[in-house]
Amino acid sequence: MSQWRNWAGDQRCTPSRVARPSTVAEVSSLVSAAAASGGTVKAVGAGHSFTDIALTRGVQLQLDGISGLLSVDRAAKLATVAGGTRLHEIPALLAPYGLAMENLGDIDRQSISGAISTGTHGTGLAFGGIATQVRALTLVSGTGEILHCSATDNSEVFSVARVGLGALGIITSVTLQCVDAFMLHAVERPEPLAAVMESYGERNALHDHFEFYWFPHTDMALTKTNTRHAPGGLPAGVSPLSTWAHFVDDVLVSNTLFSALCNVTGKLPSAIPKANRMASGLTGNREFGDASHKVFATQRTVRFREMEYALPLENIPAVLGELDAMIKRRRLQISFPVEVRSAAADTVALSTANNRETGYIAIHQHIKTAPLEYFKAAEEIFRSHAGRPHWGKWHFLQSKDFAQLYPDLELFCKVRDDLDPRRVFNNAYLARVLP
Ligand SMILES: Cc1cc2nc3c(=O)[nH]c(=O)nc-3n(C[C@H](O)[C@H](O)[C@H](O)COP(=O)(O)OP(=O)(O)OC[C@H]3O[C@@H](n4cnc5c(N)ncnc54)[C@H](O)[C@@H]3O)c2cc1C
Fold this sequence. Notes:
Blueprint: E1 4-5, E2 12-13, E3 17-19, H1 24-37, E4 41-44, E5 59-62, E6 69-73, E7 78-82, H2 90-94, E8 99-100, H3 112-117, E9 134-140, E10 146-150, H4 155-161, E11 170-177, E12 179-180, E13 183-192, H5 193-198, H6 200-206, E14 209-214, E15 220-229, H7 243-267, H8 272-282, E16 286-291, H9 292-296, E17 304-312, H10 316-329, E18 338-343, E19 358-366, H11 372-384, E20 388-389, H12 399-402, H13 409-419, H14 428-433
Parallel strand pairs: 3-5, 4-5
Antiparallel strand pairs: 1-2, 6-7, 7-11, 8-12, 9-10, 9-11, 13-15, 13-16, 14-15, 14-18, 17-19, 17-20, 18-19
Helix pairs in contact: 7-8, 10-11
Bound molecules: flavin-adenine dinucleotide (FAD).
Flavin-adenine dinucleotide (FAD) binds next to β4, α3 and β11.
């Protein structure tokens, strides 16, 4: 059997078999067969999780054959896509109806099911993660049953299954609450970190989508502020990036040059502070506008590992200060910028923004750099501020740690017992994080 690897290349497994079903009935019989024989099944999306959440020694389901638009209710702005659909395919599917997804993360390579299952999010204090856009799901449970759920249909299942960690069933369709297609006006500026921290709450409240990158060993941040406009409503003079500008800024500087810097600093860590000062000066001082999905999603070609914690929004400045002090105290050399985003509170049981306005802090290490000291020390800080780890990114928590973080964990486990009594969807990750 051939080995499967995630995007970063460091999580690997050899499934007993790879199945590529093209109908929901096939998914159901694959799951039923595994349940009958005491085996396991794991759906995989784009393999963009940094954790071992998608690994299996059992049957791996690749759902590219269960993909595309299933139905649209234009009046209600609801679109149902098949479970294997990739996020980057969705804009073209919605375009004929004048619809778009409300918010997205940094990239669009993930599958819709993989993205919601780990709580993938973008930024913007008035918006939740992608799972909050979901109005209904169809899943194949651990007994092979095909189950539809929404706020009115199997509502208990729906309340937990939108961020389901792949533990509750194989998602075969997702109904999204879309919005009218819109444009984004993007303003990217290098700014002193202190000024950004002082106005952090205000900027999040004022702007539709605010985020920033802080370059460790510098006192500079790169801010990104995106404002929503109706099609044709961008301010005068604001236009899309030319293909050349896109290539220079996003491919050459953000990926190729950054990769070269990482290679140099990998061999010469003492050059990192200088390289970060250079990077913070080279990236981001531009203004442009385009269709929402083209502004939200960027390219990532440099391979890295990532940890991201969800924190009470008001704690962000203090946590960043502690992170900076820790990096200095331990004399760590950190070449990747720290990314800071936000999201509205939501009611999805295992969403990292459950019941609180959230600030996210993401830290990264180049794939060739040992991540443990930085990640473990940062996690200590995040945990001391009641942080919740992203389910698809590095963390060292175990099941006992989650009870106090998620008030609805018990309900999640009850639904899991109902839907997957034989633990057909189990793997080492779920065995570690769920009771
Ligand atoms: C370069 C990069 C950028 C990223 N940017 C962001 C970001 O901006 N914001 C953010 O929050 N995260 C981000 N992530 C993390 C990423 O969005 C999540 O890890 C996401 O889960 C990956 O989706 P996937 O389709 O690759 O799923 P996979 O990693 O393949 O799978 C994740 C989980 O979903 C389950 N799953 C997949 N398909 C199904 C299905 N049909 N039914 C049931 N379960 C299923 C899998 O079993 C597994 O448990 C990024 C990751 C990378 C590598």
